[in-house]
Specification:
The two termini are 33 Å apart. Helix content is 25%, strand content 27%. It has six helices and 13 strands. Bound molecules: fe (ii) ion (2 copies).
């Protein structure tokens, strides 16, 4: 089985880039299921039903998210929908809207457990320990017949993500990182069979700072005045993803699939 995990889809340009590339990729690479991080899918801030549906029509099946998913309340309805396509980090307290994990039934291909976690280093978010949280989830699903367990660990510090990879090696199929929007070159399969990458990256504007207008960020870094963020919606775009090959619950291979498209 092959799982494609796409990095954070940023705004309209990110969505259109997925639309331009994913249908062909999905066919050529014989992919069973596609995940993507959607915390920036609606004009860079959070997600809406319309933006999630649009990207599902291009071939993304389910979404993870992160600290920015709470920017738009519209997504709360999506969190609660019967066949919800989106989860949020599992280590937020239980009274926060949304679920932190999901069983995905792929029919004859079996069931996948998708888990989302948030890091704590350099984050000021009210979350519990991600290590203990994932232990509890894995314990709760110990008797479930699963073909794969995939974890999106959304974090700021690379050390926290690398440590999580080692912590879960042999216990899950893949640990992939998100949040920084910058891809890392360390995709590999850990010794006990867990595919790992510190950061998948993003799908969004190449001529930007993490998707945002570069002039705004440069000005923000040079001056004390607050700046209103605007997202780049045209020009060349990057597409960052990883393709994970799974056999008997273990990862056999992980490879980066990175592309750049120019208008
Ligand atoms: Fe993000
Ligand atoms: Fe984030």
């Amino acid at each position: 089985m092959r799982i494609l995990f796409i990095g954070e889809i940023v705004g309209k340009l990110g969505r259109h880039t997925v639309g331009a590339l994913l249908p062909g990729l999905r066919k050529d690479a014989n992919i069973s299921v596609v995940f993507a991080n959607a915390e920036n899918i609606a004009h860079g801030k959070g997600a809406t039903k319309a933006t999630l549906s649009e990207v599902q029509s291009y071939g993304v099946d389910y979404f993870t998210s992160g600290n920015h998913i709470f920017w738009r309340k519209e997504v709360f309805e999506e969190f609660d929908a019967e066949n919800s396509s989106i989860i949020r980090p599992a280590n937020y307290p239980q009274d926060i809207p949304g679920q932190g994990f999901k069983i995905i039934d792929l029919g004859k291909n079996g069931k996948i457990l998708l888990i989302n976690l948030l890091g704590r280093i350099f984050f000021n978010e009210p979350v519990f320990c991600p290590f203990r949280t994932v232990d509890k989830i894995l314990e709760d699903f110990a008797d479930e017949r699963l073909v794969a367990i995939v974890v999106d660990f959304h974090a700021e510090a690379t050390s926290e993500q690398v440590a999580m990879g080692w912590y879960l090696d042999g216990r899950v199929t893949a640990v992939v990182g998100t949040h920084r929007h910058v891809p890392t070159a360390d995709a590999w399969v850990l010794p006990q069979g867990t595919a790992f990458v510190t950061d998948i990256g993003m799908v969004g504007a190449r001529h930007s700072v993490l998707g945002v207008e570069k002039e705004i960020i440069i000005s923000k870094l040079k001056n004390p005045q607050p700046q209103k963020f605007e997202w780049v919606e045209e020009g060349p775009a990057v597409f960052n993803s990883v393709l994970i090959e799974v056999e008997n619950g273990k990862a056999k291979n992980i490879e980066r699939i990175d592309k750049v498209i120019a208008p």
